[in-house]
Design goal:
The chain is an all-alpha fold. It contains 4 helices and no strands. Helix 1 packs antiparallel against helix 2.
Amino acid sequence: MITYYSAVDLEKKIELIRKTISDNDDEIALYNAELQRIRNDIANLITEIANEATQKQLLLAEKTVLEQELKALDTAHKFDVEQLRSKVAIANVDPAPFFESELTSSIREIRKQFENITDQQQQQLQNYYQAKISALIEYHQPKQQIESQWQTDKIREITRTISDVRNRVNNLQIENQDLDRQIVDIRQQIQSSTYQDDQRLINEQKHYRDEIERLKNYINDLEKYRTTLEEEIRRYRLLLEGNTNQVGLRHFAEEAEKIMNRGRSLLDSLNLRLIRNTSIPSSSHNIREVTYSTSYSSGGSTLHG
């Protein structure tokens, strides 16, 4: 009974260890999922960094193209201005026939308007491209520094998290190995206990079989003794009761009892005579002895006969 309860306790301990292993497996699965999520975050960050670098290269290329276009527009503008100036300042043109004063004022006004429009357009282009370049510089340089610091901190945090997860997984693996060893030990204990119980049961079965065999032999001996007793009883009964060809001892006993009864009656009558004859005590004593002797002798001879 003690071994049975010990086996039950061991089974409960095994179930507890299995539950702990299941919980550890679930925790490892959660850590693996978290690790996969962190890896996905790292991959996304790397992709974002690559996209930012590509975007930076595209913006730098666009900046270079815009600067080249600005220089080309500036050169074209200067060329147009010089060409107009050269056309207006032709020496061989006499404006007198064409109303020199009005023509001069008109040309001056047109030139002034053209120069104003050109200067305004040049200033607008310069302001636009300057604002564009400043915005690009402001967008890339400070943001790149901030994002680089944020990315560095994020990568460090992710690295620490991965290290912690790996340490936790290693600890869980060590715990699982310990639990596996405990399970092996408990199974060995259960097998040893089961073997001992089996041996005990085998020994008990052998003992009980030997005891049953001994009881069977004892019963056989009793049967033989009973048969012998029955045979003896039958033989003595035959001697006592007799059969058709022989008179049994019971008949002799009954005849003896009858003789004894007649002897007692005779003795009683003799005693009465002796009591009446009180004058001769000695003779009475002798007669009583003779009577007993005669009665015993006659009874014995009758029994013998």
